[in-house]
Amino acid sequence: MLVRMLSGRPPKIALPRGTVDTQMHMYLPGFPARPGGPALPAGALPDADQYREFMRWLGIDRVIITQGNAHQRDNANLIACLNAMGPVARGVAAFGAETSESELNALSAAGVIGARIMDLPGGAVGLDELEAVDERAAARDWMVAVQFDGSNILEHEPRLKTLKSRWVLDHHGKFFSGAAPDGPEIAAVRRLIDAGNCWFKFAGVYESSKVGGPDFADVAALSRAIAAHAPERVVWGSNWPHNLAKTNADYPDDAELTDTVLGWLPDAKARHRVLVENPERLFGLKPFTDGGA
Fold first, then answer.
1. Which end of the chain has the smaller Cβ count within 10 Å, N or C?
2. Which residue of the set 239, 243, 248, 278 is catalytic?
3. What positions does the domain Amidohydrolase-related occupy (predicted)?
């Protein structure tokens, strides 16, 4: 794992009090990778203390810890991470139709408030279980994070329109084949958002961009279009510790990355919506007070 030491300037854009990082991963000792997923990230694994330092550096107050693919549907590491982080953290777990109610109860007691669909290589729960996971999430008033190759969003739109839960289209939609702000894929995103229970997540831009940094102009154009259409339906995540960064050259400067992505929003009012108000609605969080999520 390439966890770069936190140094240098913080972001130029000041994050408002109550900011929620809606997408990050954490790994603790004693929880090996499970069959079917990728290996644990190489090197020193990021822990609660490292992430707390990251929070202080960027100005984050609350966090959503997302189940990593390495652990597949074994959420024991996620539960341990939530216990380590305490009341500022909530979790998004990986589970399917076979998961028992007692396990879901244990996840809820630990602070889990969402489910993860990841229909890409290494993902623990794919779109084949979308409706089953949505049914179980809706019954608990949990949200669902949905990630797939966004190039196929028109194919999946009819199913996504039927979701009962609040849900978020993950990682800038991951439009791997490219999409235009006025193209059919973004029109589909607008329709899904307008249905009333869909959000769009700014996270991991470097995974979705075809042109690359530092500006990520292709994803920037799409993200600006969606934020202009529905600023009340965008959330942000750091995607720390950037699991897909393979070398130091790939590893982003988080201050610069934060400034770049939040710079796609027009003003401080929009940033407050995206960083505080919108995630509170999507994840069912209480209004911010110091010391808890």
1. N
2. 239
3. 20-285
